[in-house]
Design goal:
7 helices, two-stranded antiparallel ribbon, 2 domains, about 5% strand, mainly alpha, disordered N terminus
Length: about 180
């Protein structure tokens, strides 16, 4: 037995014979859209199939009527949105790409630094440098360490790094 997707069936609106994959069972159509179909085709029953193109036409009318009832009248933008829905087109471009084109050198640099400063790569490298510093000072230079415990120079370097890194991250987050 063949499935309904492989059979050729006729649309109850336009009457054209189409393959089953281009038809939708009429009982699966939303009630509000079925009501609109019945207003134009009163003799249509809830049985049978409707082709995708006819269903989309009635969906567009439903959306248009819904917008008109909410707003009173449709603006040019509303009509553009409806037309893009009808054509399955997108209205927006890649806004991130447009935004990134307008960034200054400083903004791009702060983004790159913030991305790196908040990454696992940075944390692992920085942790390795700290561990190496402490081991080198504590073990290798026991005779005469240039930064003895409690590592005052290391604290100064860390404070300077934090003083520089925080404003860079805030600049990046500010946008």
């Amino acid at each position: 037995m063949k499935s309904s997707r492989q059979l050729s069936l006729s649309c109850r609106i336009c009457g054209k014979t189409r393959s089953g994959s281009q038809l939708i069972p009429a009982d699966l159509v939303r009630n509000a859209i079925s009501d609109q179909i019945r207003m134009e085709f009163p003799d249509c029953s809830a049985e049978g199939y409707i082709c995708v193109s006819d269903l989309n036409r009635f969906r567009m009318r439903y959306i248009e009527n819904l917008l008109e009832s909410e707003k009173g009248e449709l603006s040019t933008l509303d009509r553009e949105v409806l037309e893009s829905l009808k054509l399955h087109d997108t209205l927006t471009a890649d806004v991130d790409l447009e935004f990134e084109k307008k960034l200054t050198f400083g903004e791009k640099l702060s983004d790159k630094l913030a991305d790196f400063g908040g990454s696992w790569t940075f944390l692992i490298i920085f942790g390795g440098i700290l561990l190496a510093w402490i081991l080198m000072i504590s073990i290798a230079l026991l005779a005469k360490p240039f930064d003895p415990y409690p590592y005052i120079l290391l604290n100064l370097v860390l404070s300077c790094l934090a003083a520089i890194q925080a404003p860079v991250i805030m600049m990046s987050q500010n946008r």
